[in-house]
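Ticket #4471: structure export looks truncated?
Reporter: QA, pipeline team
Priority: medium

Steps to reproduce: submit the single chain below to the structure queue and open the exported record.
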Amino acid sequence: MISVRVIDSHTEGEPTRLVVEGGPALGNGSMAERLDQLKSTYDHFRSAVVNEPRGSEAVVGALLCDPVDPSAAAGVIYFNNVGFLGMCGHGTIGLVATLLFMNKIGPGEHRIETPVGDVSATLAEDGSVSIHNVQSYRLYTEVSVEVPGFGTVVGDVAYGGNWFFLVGESHVALTSANLEELTHYSKAIKRALVANGITGKDGAEIDHIEIFGSPERVDAHSKNFVLCPGGAYDRSPCGTGLSAKLACLAADGKLAEGEEWRQESIIGTLFSGSYRWDGVAIRPTITGRAYVTAATSLLFDDNDPLRHGIQL
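Actual output as written to the record:
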């Protein structure tokens, strides 16, 4: 019997499961190098932690790592039900809240090493967390794609730590009552992008679809629905997705440097964001709150045929 200690949290509704003890030994290389090793050798561990019967398609996993630079607060590798993520905004907010719960950090600014570069996070006295994300930018604007069953869909291709196709006008109304229809619509867009060879930089897969509409909250500028790589929708407003959105707003001159943008999620939770220019790209800051929901151990029985998770 193998035991793995985890701490669960949610960031504005989106769950994160942080592995704090019992994960695979990945050496002392960079987070990118450790991610490569996790992919090639321990993908069954990823599946076991986040897939059923222990997890669900909505859970984002995070492996807590010793940082390369001891002055950093932590290193982290993010993963989900189908693979790995370069960066995760809600997950980093959850990580910071969990490090506070573990008495490893206090209020102030902390540096986190990720596979796509270092990010810094500011933990406020009130418990909110601001993530200062990696460089974000828009690659293509007003890309048209024919989506079977829906006609022409127009969107921007942008990077916020992950690759996004951002659609400003939806063929499906953005309400929580339409979650099934929005998921179907977003999956159809994703298939159309693949079929038409539309990618991010250097052929990178656009693995997130983000659809915008008018907010329901009076304190929000916009509402979104985000389809994640594994087919689940993001319960939070999506940190890397908001970073990509800010890059588009900045490129269009619709949001000034330092000005706040408040993004509502499909379930009604909120992130706020702003940016500063960093050359031709931006550096977004995303603020939200996370709450620890469980501290437990996952057990792996050698006799359990589903010990590595249900992989469909």
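Status: closed, not a bug. The export was complete when the record was re-opened. Leaving a note from the reviewer for reference: The CA atoms of residues 6 and 296 lie 6 Å apart.
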